[in-house]
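Appendix C: a fully annotated inverse folding record. The material below is reproduced so that readers can follow the format used throughout the book. The structure is listed first as tokens, followed by the designed sequence.
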């Protein structure tokens, strides 16, 4: 009996730690699989279990939890978790969360505090995360300055030339004058809209103003002055609407051109991967 107890004790002493390590590895693999399949909130539960049961690295686990909230589009929660954390990868995650919330200025302020050549974050990642909010702010001159600063301390990146070329072309974004559009439509209803590529809108404006003005003139010649006054009044309303439409069509044209330019720039920005700097599986 004593030999059986002793044998059991020895088996537990030598094999239980190995079994425990294997169980911990399987639990971490399962946690990562939940994240990859989009089950972010179940993943959070498993991370917390890992911290409690396996004494997993709490710092690594808390960062992983923040990644889950970010990937689950709980950006406000991510911001509240990271607002007091200045660790580089957390600062980058905070910047991206602010970007997703439309807080472009705050996003840039956070990313601009990330330092190059620390060894903790890839230099090119820092560059693109600085430039990304500047694109939405349409602050292309500052983006070019960021690019020039990066070139002083880093090797040329394979996508850098395309990004640089696109950034330097911001002054060539097509733009139509709203004042000129209004003037054209004042001279000939619908001409301003046509100038901005809104051909159907221009035709409708011309037809609306012309038809009501002609109707007013016709009624006036017939002596129906009351109806003629109504038709002329309606023509004046269409005419003013035509001027407003010309102004709006120029604004829409410019906004569309800016969006096309932003989209072209964004195509040179690699997508953000919050797990790139996670070492959850191999932390020990």
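Designed amino acids, in order:
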């Amino acid at each position: 009996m004593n030999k059986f107890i002793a044998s059991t004790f020895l088996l537990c002493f030598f094999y239980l730690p190995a079994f425990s390590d294997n169980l911990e590895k399987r639990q971490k693999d399962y946690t990562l699989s939940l994240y990859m399949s989009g089950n972010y909130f179940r993943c959070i539960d498993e991370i917390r279990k890992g911290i409690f049961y396996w004494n997993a690295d709490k710092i690594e686990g808390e960062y992983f939890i923040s990644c889950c909230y970010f990937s689950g589009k709980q950006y406000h929660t991510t911001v509240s978790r990271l607002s007091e954390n200045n660790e580089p990868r957390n600062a980058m995650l905070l910047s991206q969360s602010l970007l997703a919330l439309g807080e472009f200025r705050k996003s840039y302020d956070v990313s601009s505090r990330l330092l190059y050549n620390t060894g903790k974050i890839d230099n090119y990642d820092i560059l693109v995360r600085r430039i990304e909010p500047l694109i939405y702010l349409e602050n292309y001159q500052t983006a070019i300055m960021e690019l020039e600063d990066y070139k002083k301390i880093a090797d040329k990146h394979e996508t850098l030339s395309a990004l640089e070329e696109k950034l330097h072309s911001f002054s060539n974004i097509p733009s139509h004058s709203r004042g000129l559009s209004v003037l054209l439509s004042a001279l000939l209803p619908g001409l301003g809209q046509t100038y901005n590529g809104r051909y159907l809108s221009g035709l409708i404006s011309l037809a609306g103003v012309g038809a009501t003005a002609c109707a007013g003139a016709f009624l006036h010649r017939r002596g129906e002055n009351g109806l003629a006054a109504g038709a002329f009044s309606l023509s004046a309303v269409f005419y003013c609407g035509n001027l407003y439409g010309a102004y709006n069509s120029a604004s829409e044209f410019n906004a569309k051109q800016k969006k096309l330019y932003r989209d072209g720039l964004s195509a040179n920005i690699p997508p953000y991967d919050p797990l790139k700097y996670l070492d959850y599986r191999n932390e020990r």
